[in-house]
Pyrroline-5-carboxylate reductase (Lindgomyces ingoldianus), 390 residues
Amino acid sequence: MSLPPESQGLTLTVLGCGTSPILPSSTPLPRTMGIAILGGVMSTLASHHMRSHLPSPSPSGTSTPALEPPERLPGKFVACDSRREAEKQVKSALGHYNFPLTTLTNQNVTGARKADVVLLACKPQGFKDILGEEGMREALAGKLLVSILAGVTASQIEGFLYPGEDTSVEGKRCRVVRVMPNTASFVRESMSVIQTCTPPLSDTHLRLVTWIFSSIGRTVSLPASAMDASTALCGSGPAFFALMLEAVADGAVAMGLPRAEAQMMAAQTMRGTTGLVLNGEHPAMLRDKVSTPGGCTIGGLLVLEEGTVRGTIAKAVREATVVANIKDSLKMWLESCAYPVPDLSHRYYNTHISLSNPWDVHPVSPARQVQQEGAFQPLTHNSPTPLSNL
């Protein structure tokens, strides 16, 4: 499968560009992931165009080499959504970029036909409604479909589009790739995980997907088996770090600093620390450099170690990984049922899953333990979990 040879650039269509607002309307940041990604791509293109008209700087100092862009970049954009008000939202956020931008309402098939690359950014529970529209499969034929839907695997999308068919026929199907960005996409500091495919993506496609998501942060490619742990680390991570930041700020407030200043100082300190680590500083070495003998830092670190902060944080990531695995496996089990599945959203269950057999999933009473095998210790959930939250 190869990308079309037209010279005017690729057309990138986003399905669900204005759905599922994550941020309140009062924020100056993009309110949806689709808008955030389009904004990152357009901003990168604008910067690339500006740099191409400036003289090259003299080679002094060291820097991280920039990602080599693919041969063909997006040049035209289509934003599709089911709500008319989303058109105004998209144009308000992206209209200042000097790129062709078309907004469509309830015209997903039209948007897919116009596209070379399609980004699926709707609500996860709504992807079947969009991909099941009449003519959608034909509109996607031979194209690259990039899904950022949480909890929806590439195989689930392929299985829905091509049930019982040989999906290896070149030109008659789209190529599906799953990417998991996180909420920091809104400030272009995302950690996006690109799931590796079997067979692998072509070099052209991989470079294009990597370039698109590098416009909103950093990227890494990992196999499907690592997606649950990636969800815990990158998807849940912002909440974990926000809790740590809030705790540090609370301590500063308790010692007399004003709340606003304490929060800003804590955030900037965390940002500076991550900058040092991303530039090659090992966390342990950084911690040791700051810890002078008999100083305040080592005293504070001892309190953290006494409180088992390190182990508790590691267990939080492990627990989030287990929950992500349970959710994925339970969804797959329900979808595999040959009989109608009743609506149990009003019921409360815990879930038992054996990691050695992901299909061994069934609702159990709240008194039952959630037994995790292998590298995981048995976990006990003392409160029931609504099935509607899975």
Q: What stands out?
A: Residues 237-307 form a domain with the ProC C-terminal domain-like fold fold (CATH 1.10.3730.10). The first helix runs from residue 33 to 51.
